[in-house]
Amino acid sequence: MKGINQDQLEMKLELVIQKLMNLGGPEDEKELEAGGEKIGFFRRDFGIKEWDWPQGVGLYGLFKIMQITGREDYRDFLYHWFKDNLAEGLPSKNINTTTPLLTLAALNEFYKDPQFEELCLKWADWLMNCLPRTKEGGFQHVTSANGDRQGVRLNENEMWIDTLFMTVLFLNRMGQKYQRQDWIDESIHQVLMHIKYLCDKQTGLFYHGWTFNERNNFGGIFWCRGNSWFTLGILDYVDMFEGTMNSGLKRFIVDTYKAQVETLKTLQDPGTGLWHTVLTDPTSYLETSGTAAITAGIIKGIRAGILDDSYLPCAVKAIQGILDQIDTDGTVLGVSGGTGMGYNAEHYKNILIAPMAYGQSLTILALAEALAMEHHGRA
User: Which residues fall within 8 angstroms of residue 230, CB to CB, at 6 or more apart?
Assistant: First the structure.
């Protein structure tokens, strides 16, 4: 990409990947623990070894870069990660613990491992028949209980924007792979439900969640990383159909994406190229993981011809901003911790900042998209 030092990008990308594969807890873990959930402390979020959403997003980033580079060592890492976790025993089934399966379903194209296949098929069936639902059949955002691998937090009658990336992408991939129209149709239903209840018509941005119990969007906050799950994931979702998606449905989804990124472009911090953790609140801190996912989604849109080249300066500025947030050892700085549902902007502004697997991997996805753009000669 013009304006980006290619050697620096490739060097920093390698550092970030190596750090992800060897990620442990933060140095100040004990002090962070004292703040607990209200500041976003969840022990499962740290490191690469646990089976939950932060690691699942990490695996997805690694798989994407493996596809671009063809590196066998990444494939071996992923294979052994899954085998080790299966040998150790998996946590409770929920929205967030579904995330690693998005990578596993694709990885098993190489291995054709019966254990992997059985797990993916059983989990998809569980999503269809056992996962708690909200009114109108939305996927209820059931998560792992903090500090209890086998426990769950039900979040009754709540839909969160994270669900599209964490669970719906996997269900659609499985539907496409096994030609299960019922799974594909359910994934479409979930995408439309989340757009219906979480997308703000005035701005095109997404609220963090919706509760059918209170019939509101909680604090009505436009959270950066929450929005980024849609920006990042929705074009991957469309791609999975390989041209078979109903054209009216595709237009509806793509127009929703375009409306969102049109507003996001106006909210980018002009100095750093990053986005604020509360998108519409410039007093909230700048946040790297959400920025990286937004950037990856925008570059993918440019490469696909969905966004015009007026988005290029935004993408270049964001990539440079992300590169500036990568420490000398490959740690991605400025990443916010696990973020529960908030009723006001202060909740999001007070979430801790610490190295996270998803911070590493979303950065990998952004830099991988920049590399792919370079290879295709678009910029």
Answer: 161, 164, 165, 206, 257, 260, 297
